[in-house]
Fold this sequence. Notes:
Largest interface: A-B, 99 and 99 residues
CATH superfamily of the domain at 8-155 in chain A: Acyl-CoA dehydrogenase/oxidase, N-terminal domain
Number of strands of chain A: 11
Radius of gyration of chain A: 24 Å
Number of helices of chain A: 19
CATH architecture of the domain at 8-155 in chain A: Orthogonal Bundle
Strand order of the largest sheet of chain A: 4-5-11-7-6
Oligomer: homodimer
Shape of chain A: globular
Structural class of chain A: alpha+beta
Distance between the termini of chain A: 44 Å
Helix content of chain A: 55-70%
Amino acid sequence: xxxxxxxxxxxxxxxxxxxxxxxxxxxxxxxxxxxxxxxxxxxxxxxxxxxxxxxxxxxxxxxxxxxxxxxxxxxxxxxxxxxxxxxxxxxxxxxxxxxxxxxxxxxxxxxxxxxxxxxxxxxxxxxxxxxxxxxxxxxxxxxxxxxxxxxxxxxxxxxxxxxxxxxxxxxxxxxxxxxxxxxxxxxxxxxxxxxxxxxxxxxxxxxxxxxxxxxxxxxxxxxxxxxxxxxxxxxxxxxxxxxxxxxxxxxxxxxxxxxxxxxxxxxxxxxxxxxxxxxxxxxxxxxxxxxxxxxxxxxxxxxxxxxxxxxxxxxxxxxxxxxxxxxxxxxxxxxxxxxxxxxxxxxxxxxxxxxxxxxxxxxxxxxxxxxxxxxxxxxxxxxxxxxxxxxxxxxxxxxxxxxxxxxxxxxxxxxxxxxxxxxxxxxxxxxxxxxxxxxxxxxxxxxxxxxxxxxxxxxxxxxxxxxxxxxxxxxxxxxxxxxxxxxxxxxxxxxxxxxxxxxxxxxxxxxxxxxxxxxxxxxxxxxxxxxxxxxxxxxxxxxxxxxxxxxxxxxxxxxxxxxxxxxxxxxxxxxxxxxxxxxxxxxxxxxxxxxx
Amino acid sequence: xxxxxxxxxxxxxxxxxxxxxxxxxxxxxxxxxxxxxxxxxxxxxxxxxxxxxxxxxxxxxxxxxxxxxxxxxxxxxxxxxxxxxxxxxxxxxxxxxxxxxxxxxxxxxxxxxxxxxxxxxxxxxxxxxxxxxxxxxxxxxxxxxxxxxxxxxxxxxxxxxxxxxxxxxxxxxxxxxxxxxxxxxxxxxxxxxxxxxxxxxxxxxxxxxxxxxxxxxxxxxxxxxxxxxxxxxxxxxxxxxxxxxxxxxxxxxxxxxxxxxxxxxxxxxxxxxxxxxxxxxxxxxxxxxxxxxxxxxxxxxxxxxxxxxxxxxxxxxxxxxxxxxxxxxxxxxxxxxxxxxxxxxxxxxxxxxxxxxxxxxxxxxxxxxxxxxxxxxxxxxxxxxxxxxxxxxxxxxxxxxxxxxxxxxxxxxxxxxxxxxxxxxxxxxxxxxxxxxxxxxxxxxxxxxxxxxxxxxxxxxxxxxxxxxxxxxxxxxxxxxxxxxxxxxxxxxxxxxxxxxxxxxxxxxxxxxxxxxxxxxxxxxxxxxxxxxxxxxxxxxxxxxxxxxxxxxxxxxxxxxxxxxxxxxxxxxxxxxxxxxxxxxxxxxxxxxxxx
Lengths: 596, 596
């Protein structure tokens, strides 16, 4: 059976030592969360995740969700009880507006809790996760009456939410969507069409589910400029705000899929369902994009979450499993064999995962803090810089943390040998669950295009310039510190490659857009490595400082060792990315479509 | 529903154009297989794979194998009929000794057929595949009476075979195995113990199953030098050679695993089962190693097989699926969107797979031909060179073709977006099935250690010298040919990196064995890239020649384009591997075991 322990210490180190949490104490919400309160919150979240959510992860995978003959959906054993504990603990609305019953705490804390929760049980965490996305959409775009009707029940977790975008013939290209909305005399719309791949589309965790649905109002323009956003509750709230009449929306079937079996991925049929317009007509995609950044950060976090729990189990196994002898001489003479952690190649796999995890967590914390600044800072310049950061880094985090997170689960599975391929250790579930994060909320190739095609050139490249300047400043400020040298050399090289890659794009992508498309994926991963490397620089600096102050030498030494591994063995990949992207689009476009 | 078409044309191109099949016409078995016969055999195999095996692949995954209350195992619907067709077609014994009813054809043809068969249905193919391994073991080490009793029935496919090595506490380190063999008065042994992860351990395809079992004869030395190999039939053959008394071996349970659900992976319980010693007592591991090369090549072939079938389906989907518009202008103005094959990043994924597949197939053909030479050439020097090749390249093929083959299935799945994550298109099955090949027959980290620790230094590095000399000669011979330049530059660079990596190992691994362990995985992958790159050089040369001779211009142009892609976009990875391995073991060994 797999196990999980939430990395509370590491999160606290990042919040306090690396990002100096107390600097933000004057922002709304942060004042309520001084370091001791943060520690208490994270510790309580850890307990819930370890003791309630994780124990039903493997069993939830085996059992899956079941659609009943009446179209209702049953979640796996234990999910209802787990959800009750989660909702009653106030975790759904941790960062939501207190006006609707939320705790108003920083988003950064919600992101940390979501990492733990997804590590413990990714399928489960998607239920409240989608509610959080729906809350964000309604809070930003809903009328006061819509907000009053739905938000209190969603923030408390009493009702759940979903996002309905995809249709059989359109996922990435939402301009093709066909679901139609016919205006009714009472100002509502009759929604008709089919949506697919709807996570948490139906379930038995809550008495009502609030669907956010993209549809095309009759007569609206074709393409993306004719799409509107609607709220379509499963049960229409009655005058008292309780679930009333059953609406014309139902789960037609549950997808048979590779993983996240504990989450019901539904085909949703809308058959003249009553919907209320959210935001402006024909501006539904813009309304969606508002919550895209947070949703994508959430998915990035899932990549980290599976990598973390996979690492923990693989490390424990490597310390226990006796097999073979160390190349450098017997290490456990009293045992029939050495634990496999003596083997350099087993350590390589573990360290590749660990070196990713700690830096990825730092990236999530950093970017979440910027999200908080973007929403909560009174200083317009700070908000703009934060928005720049979010726009630029979100596709990088989504693409790179989910790609590398998936690779981590594959490596962790490999540490187990054959025992990783069978179900009982749970390692193969992490692989199957992690895989979806590379696909949903915009497949990673789309993230790369978003980065290169939209985010890089935006505002004359202001966001990238700001990022690179920050990295260069860090390199400069620390170059005289010999203890920092191992953490700067690889980063400097990577940053140079990133600049060269950017230059190549500027010189080659304007005249020939296919060059941008051909370079995008490598550029995104190169960027990700530099961002992760910069995080290692920051972590090393904080670790050296804490050690110098006499704190936690062993833990800090471990960080310094893992960071050195990252610089020596992971950062060199930037060169390959640069070499590849610099070859341009020709070798990609040469083959005629029919020759594939 | 996924589809599959066996790449007969490509195999024939490799056999005839690249490796000049007719050169071997004077070897035993090759005389019976001139090009037209080869084409007929491959075409017939293709038909069986496409029409019989592939149609029960997805359904076999869904249904899985079921252990009945009496301990017998039921394979999925259609497997019995498929097996009947496979056995009656003579495919089990295609390359087996005619003295036992085999067709005596070159192993190279069997390898090609096994690729097709595994592409069509990997779970199914493992049943006859394990029989082929068991045949090889008995043929090499069995006494005449054992051979006469078992081989005719196994070669015909009437009976199946299995390999029983792994136990709960030992996989890689077989020296720890505990299954015991107690000598009986009649010369047989009573075998008692538990084996796990036994592929095809029990099933309903054949009336008898011949288990090859590693066990320790009572009183034998500890460790690997006290292990013997036994044949343990499920039913003991009676005087007429038919299945007689039920032996004391049975399937205790079927593993719940990530993939290859159509193959029964069994816990096998031996309870005083009657076994016959094969080969010398205490030399069982040596007997096993004889068939290791072929078994590992077979697994390498599985990596290719899943990559190929995943590619075919992804390419077809990319040509059909309409989504978004080309960055360089609308390509299908009559349609609501362009097919996604217009997007450079979709082409990148497809070409990374395709560029691997064609070169990997060449590596399998090349190495299979060397296996044929090792067994069939009358010239001792040729045999020795072939053995060198096999020893050196087998771990590279096993490790690299299964790692990259798995990556291919993940990329092909990505081309499908959300449709790749659900079951109906079959893409997620390829990922789950391909994953096991990185683990069994020696996990890939073990292949890397075998390469660096054993195969490189063997005979003073003779095998590697021979490989590098062949590559250098190829580079030299073709350097004046301008048409070949795109296929030489990247290869030259890669070969240089491989030499530098080898030098680094010579200088650093002797004094400090952990440096070998730390470098092994990167070295193996660097070697694999050079080997794949060399194959692209050979393919390009043959394609240019065929084109010059007026043949198949479109098909040859496609090869030349894909090869160029490989050189520009894949070969640069060798630099990262060299950079990583040259950092040595320090950053891997610094962290104490308890700090993981």
